[in-house]
Design goal:
It comes from Allokutzneria albata. One of its GO terms (molecular function) is glutathione transferase activity. Keywords: Transferase. InterPro entries: Glutathione-S-Trfase_C-like (IPR010987), Glutathione-S-Trfase_C_sf (IPR036282), Glutathione_S-Trfase (IPR040079), Glutathione_S-Trfase_N (IPR004045), GST_Omega-like_C (IPR047047), GST_Omega/GSH (IPR016639), Thioredoxin-like_sf (IPR036249). The structure is a single chain. This protein is mostly helical. The protein folds into 2 domains: 130 residues, Glutaredoxin; 154 residues, Up-down Bundle (Glutathione S-transferase Yfyf (Class Pi), Chain A, domain 2), CATH 1.20.1050. Helices cover 36% and strands 5% of the residues. The protein contains 9 helices and 4 strands; from the N terminus they run βαβαββααααααα. The chain has a 4-stranded mixed β-sheet, with helices on both faces. Helix 1 runs parallel beside helix 3 and helix 4 packs parallel to helix 7. The longest helix has 22 residues. It is globular, with a radius of gyration of 19 Å. The structure holds glutathione (GSH). The site of glutathione (GSH) has 14 residues, from loops.
């Protein structure tokens, strides 16, 4: 069996089993009140889980309420670093590594130090790295700070359907590409690959006659699928061996992804340079040369997608972010 990129998260059958999120407090509690300027969202622009939070923060207009720290796309053995900032320190938190916030919160923490994390600025402690809850709470608990015209990304009447599709998309697509890439046995890889493409086929069918995944406006479900699709050809197809088809060879999903990419709040949050450098230059086990591929050509992202004809409107009665 091949050597694992993350040994402690690899089963005896060679399957990738992601660690649980360690910090699961929620802002909007007695301990962590909703307060503008108090919390810092730490992300890597490369990371699909963090990318969700960046998009939702922007769509809801929470930029002034929750500040953003961006780490270097390349992790070293001490984890995520603030080497993009002056003096190699996050200017608000005053730390050089994200690990410092984790260890300040739990000195015995022995897992991976992950983005996205929300850090309480006054105490320097991590409130949450529970990425699925972070975006939901931006929608539900930060309403007082939403911009005027902010869309409803998690409407009450559609929640059950959104949750159901999110669960499938998480298992087979968002985490499915990692299960392909980090598998250390042929069998585990085959299983993840089959589940991934079966799900992408089902999503293609669903999206062939409706513009968005649930209802007729953009919801949390679209954001979660988008962050994996946008990385598909640049990284997953080669690096994670998810190569039955490229995104550009799956016409419905490709048009759907372009539709979202060109919707305000999406494309401007995508950093293909960070995305490619992170994956190819951080996973030594998968890419020992650390060479970052030059392609693919990105021009096609701006070609007309034609999906307006399916009806729906991106923000419903809301307005796009400025
Ligand atoms: N918190 C989740 C998901 C978030 C996640 O995996 N983020 C990645 C970047 S995409 C990360 O921060 N990895 C740090 C590491 O592997 O050391 C986890 O623990 O698996």
């Amino acid at each position: 069996m091949a050597t694992a990129q993350f040994g402690s998260e690899t089963s005896q059958r060679g399957e990738w089993v992601r660690q649980a999120n360690r910090f699961t407090d929620r802002i909007g509690s007695a301990e962590w009140p909703v307060e503008a300027g108090r919390y810092r969202l730490v992300v890597s622009l490369a990371c699909p889980w963090a990318h969700r939070a960046v998009i939702v923060r922007r769509l809801l207009g929470l930029e002034d309420a929750i500040s953003l720290g961006v780490v270097d796309p390349i992790r070293d053995d001490k984890g995520w670093r603030f080497t993009l900032d002056e003096g190699d320190r996050d200017p608000v938190l005053g730390i050089g590594f994200l690990s410092e916030a984790y260890l300040a919160t739990d000195p015995g923490f022995a897992g991976r130090f992950t983005v996205p994390s929300i850090v309480d600025v006054p105490s320097g402690k991590v409130v949450t790295n529970d990425y699925p809850q972070i975006t939901i709470d931006f929608s539900l608990r930060w309403k007082a700070f939403h911009r005027e015209g902010a869309p409803n990304l998690y409407p009450e009447t559609l929640r059950e359907e959104i949750d159901a599709i999110n669960a499938e998309v998480y298992r087979d697509v968002n985490n499915g590409v990692y299960r392909c890439g980090f598998a250390t046995s042929q069998q585990a890889y085959d299983k993840a690959y089959d589940a991934l493409f079966a799900r992408l086929d089902a999503l293609s069918a669903r999206l062939s006659d409706q513009r968005y995944l649930v209802g007729d406006t953009i919801t949390e479900a679209d954001i979660r699928l988008f962050t994996t699709l946008v990385r598909f050809d640049a990284v997953y197809h080669g690096h994670f061996k998810t190569n039955r088809h490229k995104l550009t060879e799956m016409p419905v999903l490709w048009a759907y992804a372009r539709d979202l990419f060109t919707t305000p709040g999406f494309g401007e949050t995508v950093d293909f340079d960070h995305i490619k450098r992170h994956y190819y230059a951080t996973h030594h086990q998968l890419n020992p040369s650390l060479i970052v591929p030059k392609g693919p050509d990105l021009g096609a992202w701006y070609e007309p997608h034609g999906r307006e004809a399916l009806g729906g409107s991106p923000f419903g009665p809301g307005t796009p972010p400025r």
